[in-house]
């Protein structure tokens, strides 16, 4: 069977990158040939410039014309190779872009699947109930703070005018007592009623008996 149809080709299939590299190698080879032809043409031109018209100059001119014809062929071939290389580079870029798009699509599919699995485990109603409980707890905390900050035995509505009048009266009384010559250790008049002798004592103690008891 192999003799009739040939052996199966096991060589790897060429890729765009390998094809581009192959074409670039041909272009480099043509550049070397063109450089050599240009050098020969320059030599012929210099020689013909020094020669007189005649058979020798005509023969040299024919050689130069053949070199020019060959150079044109090389330049045309090089231009074709450049076009091929450019087309393959565009195809390679398109292929790379397509690979990137497919990779992006696969990544988005995987992410979408993961997000669905993760969000599927979340109970929205449970979160809303938790938010309501947190709101209730905050309200209770505020009520506790207000209760703890409440003042004891202090009227809520205090007339500032009455306080000013009472303060002024105390100042006037202090000035009057100072003018009357009250000593430093004496009790103010507004406190004397409160510190008098107890009402249940019938008679004050006798001074002499107190001294005898002390002796």
Given as residue ranges, the uncertain stretches (5+ residues, pLDDT < 50) are: 209-215
Mean pLDDT: 78
Percent of sequence in beta strands: under 5%
Helix content range: over 70%
In terms of structural class, how would the helical and strand content be classed? mainly alpha
How many helical elements?
7
Note the gap between the termini: 153 Å
What value does the Rg take, in angstroms?
59 Å
Seen as an oligomer or otherwise, the chain set is single chain
The helix/strand order is HHHHHHH
The profile of the biggest β sheet is:
none
Which outline best applies? Answer: elongated
- Let me know the number of strands: 0
Structural overview:
- Helices cover 76% and strands 0% of the residues.
- The protein is built from 7 helices and no strands.
- The longest helix has 66 residues, at 55-120.
- The radius of gyration is 59 Å and the shape is elongated.
- It starts with a helix and ends with a helix.
Key terms:
single chain, 215 residues, mainly alpha, 0% strand
List the helices and strands and how they pair.
Elements: H1 2-5, H2 16-50, H3 55-120, H4 124-148, H5 160-180, H6 189-192, H7 207-214
Helix pairs in contact: 2-3
Concise overview:
The chain is 76% helix and 0% strand.
């Amino acid at each position: 069977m192999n003799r009739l149809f040939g052996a199966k080709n096991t060589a790897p299939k060429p890729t765009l990158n390998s094809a581009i590299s192959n074409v670039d190698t041909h272009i480099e080879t043509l550049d070397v040939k063109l450089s050599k032809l240009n050098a020969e043409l320059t030599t012929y031109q210099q020689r013909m410039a020094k020669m007189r018209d005649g058979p020798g100059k005509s023969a040299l001119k024919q050689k130069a014309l053949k070199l020019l014809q060959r150079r044109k062929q090389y330049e045309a071939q090089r231009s074709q190779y450049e076009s091929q290389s450019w087309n393959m580079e565009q195809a390679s870029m398109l292929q790379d872009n397509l690979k990137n798009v497919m990779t992006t699509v696969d990544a988005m599919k995987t992410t979408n699947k993961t997000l669905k699995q993760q969000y599927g485990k979340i109970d929205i109603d449970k979160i809303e109930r938790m938010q309501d409980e947190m709101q209730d707890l905050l309200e209770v905390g505020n009520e506790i703070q207000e209760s703890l900050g409440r003042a004891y035995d202090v009227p809520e509505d205090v007339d500032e005018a009455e306080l000013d009048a009472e303060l002024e009266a105390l100042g006037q009384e202090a000035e009057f007592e100072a003018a009357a010559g009250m000593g430093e250790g004496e009790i103010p008049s507004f406190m004397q009623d409160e510190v008098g002798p107890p009402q249940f004592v019938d008679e004050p103690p006798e001074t002499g008996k107190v001294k005898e008891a002390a002796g």
